[in-house]
Amino acid sequence: MKYSTITNEIPPVATSGDPGRPKVLIVGAGLAGLTLGMILQKSDIPYEIFESAPTIRPVGAAMVFGPTLAPMFKQCGIYDEFVTLGKKNESINVLNSKGGKEYSVDFSDGKEMFGEDGYILTRPIIYDLIYRQIPKDRIHLGKKILSTDQDSHSVTIKCSDGLEYKGDILVGGDGAYSVVRKNMYADVKQEGNLPASDSLPLPFRTFCLLGQTQKLDVTEFPDLAKGPCQFFSTLGDDNPYT
């Protein structure tokens, strides 16, 4: 495979010297895109990450990372720091809308059961941990993708600033309404190979209302002083909300 070099001001990628390694273009600097970038960085595979926003702004609630991710974090050399930044998750308590406990799921023997314990981190912390594993010149902000094009040798993306970038593999990590997927579907539809169900809009929507407090007083909220994370989920009564 012929190596595809980038066609603008971005500095060349430092590779292992193997010209046969494909260049990966990643659209989206969310957790998925950054995690892939971290893996490629550790694997010495050339890549670039393109994010439409002018800054990386992690949003969302706390993140639960179970033992299934431990091998990847260990291979990338961040597992020990991940553990020190997180809070161990030993149980999930499910409440009804009146605050009464419905049931609990016990993970106190997680390491024995699954090989590693589970931990909870806030999203900004896990973003920062993964983001720090990636050289800053690999992430390009303010890059809104307008179109994608591919042939038998390479793939090209065109951005709203008029610049084009070439690579060998294009990965869409830009969410449910992915520009990469939209363009790919258009090509497949033109070829007559797109299933009818994939032409329909998403069948449902989910709304997430997130609240985050300022730092709380441990004397007023003693659960904060406990070692394991206190994880509670409240189910609505006869309604679709939790």
Tag the structure with descriptive keywords.
single chain, 242 residues, alpha/beta, 3-stranded antiparallel beta sheet, 13 strands, 21% helix, flavoprotein, FAD, FAD/NAD-bd_sf, FAD-binding domain-containing protein, oxidoreductase
Shape verdict: globular
How many helices in DSSP terms? 6
* Sheet with most strands: 4 strands, parallel
> What gap, in angstroms, lies between the N and C termini?
50 Å
Strand content: 15-25%
Mean pLDDT: 85
Kindly report the oligomeric state of this protein: single chain
Uncertain residue segments: 1-17
Given helix and strand content, the structural type is alpha/beta
Order of helices and strands: EHEEHHEEEHEHEEEEEHE
Organism: Linnemannia exigua
GO molecular function, one term: FAD binding
Protein name: FAD-binding domain-containing protein
Domain FAD-binding: 23-201
Secondary structure elements and pairings:
Elements: E1 24-27, H1 31-43, E2 47-50, E3 63-65, H2 70-75, H3 79-85, E4 87-89, E5 91-95, E6 101-106, H4 110-114, E7 118-121, H5 123-131, E8 139-140, E9 145-150, E10 155-159, E11 164-167, E12 169-172, H6 179-190, E13 232-234
Parallel strand pairs: 1-2, 1-12, 2-8, 5-13
Antiparallel strand pairs: 3-7, 4-7, 5-6, 9-10, 10-11
Helix pairs in contact: 1-5
Describe the structure.
The protein has 6 helices and 13 strands. The N and C termini lie far apart (50 Å). 21% of the residues lie in helices and 22% in strands. The protein has a 4-stranded parallel sheet with strand order 8-2-1-12, with helices on both faces. A 3-stranded antiparallel sheet has the order 3-7-4. Strands 6-5-13 form a 3-stranded mixed sheet, with no helix packed on it. It has 242 residues and is an alpha/beta fold. The N terminus is likely disordered. Helix 1 runs parallel beside helix 5. A hairpin with a 4-residue loop joins strand 9 and strand 10. InterPro entries: FAD-bd, FAD/NAD-bd_sf, FAD_mOase_fung. Keywords: FAD, Flavoprotein, Oxidoreductase. This is FAD-binding domain-containing protein. Pfam families: FAD_binding_3 (PF01494). Belongs to the paxM FAD-dependent monooxygenase family.
